[in-house]
Specification:
The chain has helices at about 10-30, 45, 50-65, 105-110, 115-120, 145-150, 165-170, 175-195, 210-230, 255-280, 290-310, 310-315, 340-350, 360-370, 415-420; strands at about 90-95, 125-130, 150-155, 200-205, 205-210, 235-240, 320-325, 335, 375-380, 385. By secondary structure, it is an alpha/beta fold. Bound molecules: 2-acetamido-2-deoxy-beta-D-glucopyranose (2 copies). This is Integral membrane protein.
Amino acid sequence: MALYHYNRKQRLLLASFALLFLLLLGLCHFWSARDPGSYFFQPNEGYRPEYSVQRIHESLEWLSAFNQSGSSASSHATPGISPPRAKTACVGIVTVKRPLQQDLDTTVGSILDTLTPDQRAALTVQVLFALSDPSAHPDYNQTWVNNVVDRVLTYDDLADAPGWIILNLEKKKNIKKKSLIDYRLGLQACYDMTDAPWIIMLEDDVVAQRNWYEHTMRSVQQIEEWRRHDAIKDWLYVRLFYTEKFLGWNSENWPVYLAWSVLVVSVCASAGIYVRRAARPAQGVLTNPFLLVLCGICVPLLIGLFFLAGRLTWFPLQDGIHVMNAHGCCSQALLFNRENVPALLEYLEYMEDVVPTKAVDSVIEMLAARADLDRLAISPSQMQHVGAASYKEKKKSWKWEGPYRVKGAHGVWSMGFEKAYRGESTGHGRLDLDGAV
Ligand SMILES: *[C@@H]1O[C@H](CO)[C@@H](O)[C@H](O)[C@H]1NC(C)=O
Ligand SMILES: *[C@@H]1O[C@H](CO)[C@@H](O)[C@H](O)[C@H]1NC(C)=O
């Protein structure tokens, strides 16, 4: 099929296709730079922190006002005064010592800094310092902790915390099993110490968007509305953070992708043959060898480019609530439905002794699958994961790597979060009564 087999018009068409294809390649390079499932993904673009840097700054600034001894009388933090019952949500944070940097202050600051007094009163914030010697945690002695957090917990405060097991796990550096126990204890503490219908479990290295509380509560109301009308199944959690990393093309769907590709090629071939029959001038162009190149090379090249550009480039998640029963990752920020928490607690405890030990998020998924519970996600993410490192990775030494100080370890990062809330007003404590449930 050398080029001299083709007439002038055909050669012109092929050259135009080549140009078009190059143009599309250039566009994909630009369009898909932030789609982690794309061949054209550029880490420096996708992982560039923008909104989260602003939020970290804001929340630390807010928190610093509570960081002086004697500032506890301030209006926001009224620990011990507000009744522990009749809460809307309990925020449970389990914190451990991390390499490089602690982000607990950012996490706590960013979930509280924009709340109205009513919203603040509807929340209980509990932080479990998950170390057998809590004073070894750099934040344990910080003044803001007691001024802002409703309940500061250590293993000693939890009746069923198995002290010697924890010590042993710390000694053996069995972080996986300890994470399972810690997660259960944090969840249990929220369940036992409040009657909140929603229990929000956060890792100690997330940052929340300015309007997270209102948005989340409105979403949960919507979900409950659907539930009452049987539009969705019973549900275990709503994901307040997800990474787009695992939402690309899925290898298990290859038969679907193949079928569509074959269909597209067949339609092109049929269309070519039809046009050749119907339109006289096309007869000199749409010859058999030319159609062969068109359907055998050009169209497959376009299909290939389509897939390389990445699934989210073509089908981004719409803003709103999604059922995300597969490929949702990870457990940085989940809002649990109180009704199903006892089953999860029981399952977490059971899984603590199963070898090999599973990660917390896998265990949660396993329970949801067993109990046939839906898992939902709010898009865009309400929180971002900004922890640069954790001791879960077994490294010899720790140092800052890559171009950004604010980043999610292992690329556990929400690309959407950084762009979704741009251009928002920076007004603190805005009053919006719809949000208060
Ligand atoms: C609180 O004060 C301590 C000691 O001065 C300081 O190290 C820490 O960074 C402060 N934290 C915040 C959130 O301002
Ligand atoms: C916290 O305070 C206690 C008592 O004041 C002290 O012994 C301990 O070393 C402090 N820990 C840190 C991390 O500053």
